[in-house]
Amino acid sequence: MAKDTITNSLNEFEKVEQAAAFLGQRIATPEVAVVLGSGLGQFSEAIVDRIVIPYADIPHWPSDPLIGHGRILTAGTVAGRPVVVLEGRAHRYQGYTRSQIAFAPRVLARIGVPTLVLTNAAGGINTAFTPSSIMIIDDHINLLGDNPLIGPHDERFGPRFPDMTQVYASRLRAVVDQVGTDTSLRLVHGVYVAVHGPSFETPAEIKFLRTIGADAVGMSTVPEAIVARQMGLEVLGLACITNMAAGVLPEPLHQDDVLQAAEQIAEPFGKLLVSLIRHL
Predict the structure, then answer these.
(1) For 132-156, how does the pLDDT look when each residue is reduced to its tens digit (9 = 90+)?
(2) By the 8 A CB rule, do 192 and 222 touch?
(3) Are 185 and 134 within 8 A, CB to CB?
(4) Number of structural domains found in the chain
(5) pLDDT digits over 251-260, tens only?
(6) Which residues contact 121 (CB under 8 A, 6 or more apart)?
(7) What is the per-residue burial (b if ≥16 Cβ within 10 Å, else e) of 75-85?
(8) Beta-strand (E) ranges in the chain?
(9) What's residue 207's pLDDT?
(10) Parent domain of 101
């Protein structure tokens, strides 16, 4: 490997370490980290003794704004357990590099987080689903045309070829099934497919995605899950079905409708997260 390639790889690790050191001086070691999807920021209000840190204040953290996403890290306690919550994530369609997309889960791992809960707003492909359902992600399909681990490898981030046999921990999925009976939400299980975006999918693409086994579609979550598994974190994925995907229903898709639908289920979804954290 060329010297400049090694240097670039080492610099990525140093950036992660600087961000981890910054957070380590300001927050308690979290037992759970939650990444909130579009329109789901209301959960942060459940955090007690909140410490709010804008992304822009954290060394090297990607911080460009995106509609429907806050750009803050909030630490505190939920159900008596130390947590950290990220409002806003880096998407490939925004032009972020692989290392920028990998940055947040790497930092979370380096500050000692053992469990990562990834949430998103997704389109329903499975016709048995309905808007406002919560899909517990059993597995994923990566159709981003990219992988956050491509490029120079630094063994301090984990193995070069991490196993993806069970990305989403069966233990965590079972806990959600257990606590979900106490909420008004409809819980379903399925396979999440990640596409690049930012355009919504065509009806023909949705037919293809259904054929290959996808139940819901979105533009996030998968890169973070891959990086988190490489780093040894236990991962749970929850997809809020905010709309049915293109062609399932005759109505066209609009981002404003997606955000509005997410906001409508944000309160019961937040209660589900609180109950989940209490029972982990």
Answers:
(1) 899 999 999 999 999 999 999 999 9
(2) yes
(3) yes
(4) 1
(5) 777 888 778 8
(6) 37, 38, 39, 40, 68, 218, 239, 240, 242, 258, 259, 261, 262
(7) bbbbbeebbbb
(8) 32-36, 48-54, 72-78, 81-87, 115-124, 133-143, 186-195, 216-218, 234-244
(9) 97
(10) 3-279
pLDDT score at 45 = 86
User: Residue 4 gets which letter from DSSP?
Assistant: H
* One-letter amino acid of 115: T
pTM of the full predicted structure?
A: 0.92
Q: Rounded to whole angstroms, what are the CA distances from 30 to 41, 61, 112, 131, 270?
A: 19, 18, 7, 32, 18
Residues of the chain with pLDDT under 70: 1-10, 64-70
3-state secondary structure of 135: strand
- Beta-strand pair 133-143/234-244: antiparallel
Give the span between the Cα atoms of 33 and 127, in whole angstroms: 31
The CATH number assigned to the domain holding 93 equals: 3.40.50.1580
